[in-house]
């Protein structure tokens, strides 16, 4: 989790110049430009990784050609928390996030990340489902969501088991139950907690999309180019025909593909679609995310046994609670997360273990006027227009933000773990928009092309063979963190695609 409180010093590049740390097979863009792909995936984050794994499974013996292009580089071969020196690794990954707020005044805390695995290299692995009431008006039936949630949870090892057995979590959850927060659960987390079985090594506890890429590779071959940025979708007669990609030395390559799956993120997908001249009333619109309120508190260590364990709890959103509260601690050396055995931080020694943090994520209404578009004046080094974000909170969003501050006080009282006092006030602060990293909705699914970019299977309205699969297709965002839902939908889209390709 990116720590907004610490300003990190710049770190040297990961790999000294001259080394070529390839830990999975790569294909040069030049070579990919010679191939006619059946499926070409753009981006390797949560959405792109899920599509790649599922399609390699579904088209295992088919001989179909599958390609993937990724704008970023090889950064880490696993989630940063799986490395014993994770304090360093994660802060280094943090430095790969580009603040884009300077030219997005209304969305000033947003950051973009480009790298193989996308943001799953350091996501917080909190993986709750959305509440049923949040999906009731979706074009995807609830029973199908149930099926695909199960598949996604299995694929990402999601369970409530991470904090179970920790006295700290057990005593605290009991206090929450006793004091009215009856829906409280151990935080569902995407963590492979299996012990080594039959000589199989389960060495990646924290899930990342790199596991999807590895699983896909075990099933069949695919071509993957990194440092390959998609800038346009090529279409012919209303059908996807490929992708124009550019390399860091600014050479352009036209990659041919019958089917293109765009998984380049909520901020980048509309940019690529709009830069391709693809028409769609809703493209880039309906940007949603979470409003956030953060509180820091102290747990009285004396109320717990000497080895208290870790704290990872969730008060979920419901039909009547338009926000969720995620509760985490101890703070091991300044990093607000679940400590691992070797965990250390470059900022503080690991002695300060009594703080905890609560994040309330609030529902933000899905509104046409909140949007990602193209800047009329700014272009990047490849000549592609930069994004421009128009974003504001509605009156209802502001009401929810007000409720969340009160809720954090109530939750802290229920846990008997007071919120700290800072500068004479409770240490509760509102997040600046974009700080949550949960953007969704800019290519939302729906039946009506006026209010959605893709149909119920993720296909862009009016362009056959062009699909979107990542956070951007979520029709609305409830209170839950979005990644599990985006992966569930990406797998569903891929199953549909496989049927079309057979
Ligand atoms: C610090 C942090 C903590 C988080 N914690 C949680 C959490 O606990 N739970 C949760 O649900 N979510 C969490 N998130 C959010 C989560 O990471 C995202 O929801 C998820 O990764 C989104 O997946 P995606 O595929 O939409 O986008 P990404 O993961 O961002 O993937 C997009 C991919 O596309 C690539 N790309 C972009 N543009 C191009 C282009 N033009 N050409 C080719 N490739 C391109 C990128 O390099 C990247 O690989 C967290 C995020 C951060 C940063």
Can you characterise this structure?
The chain has ten helices and 21 strands. It has helices spanning 29-32, 46-58, 86-95, 132-135, 142-156, 167-178, 209-219, 268-275, 395-415, 483-501, and strands spanning 36-42, 66-69, 97-99, 111-113, 158-159, 185-186, 189-190, 223-225, 229-236, 239-246, 252-262, 291-298, 311-315, 323-329, 355-362, 371-379, 385-390, 421-422, 425-426, 428-430, 466-468. It is of the alpha+beta class and 502 residues long. The radius of gyration is 22 Å and the shape is globular. The strands form six sheets. Strands 1, 2, 8, 9, 10, 11 and 21 form a seven-stranded mixed beta sheet that branches. Strands 6-13-14-15-12-20 form a six-stranded antiparallel beta sheet. The two termini are 41 Å apart. The longest helix is centred in the C-terminal third of the chain and has 21 residues, at 395-415. The protein is 23% helix and 21% strand. It has two domains: 25-157 and 206-288 and 368-392 and 439-502, FAD/NAD(P)-binding domain (3-Layer(bba) Sandwich); 159-191 and 291-362 and 394-432, Cholesterol Oxidase, domain 2. A hairpin with a 2-residue loop joins β18 and β19. 52% of the residues are buried. The structure holds flavin-adenine dinucleotide. Flavin-adenine dinucleotide (FAD) binds at residues 1-2, 42-48, 69-72, 113-115, 118-120, 122-127, 229-230, 263-266, 268, 272, 437-438, 470-471, 481-483, 486.
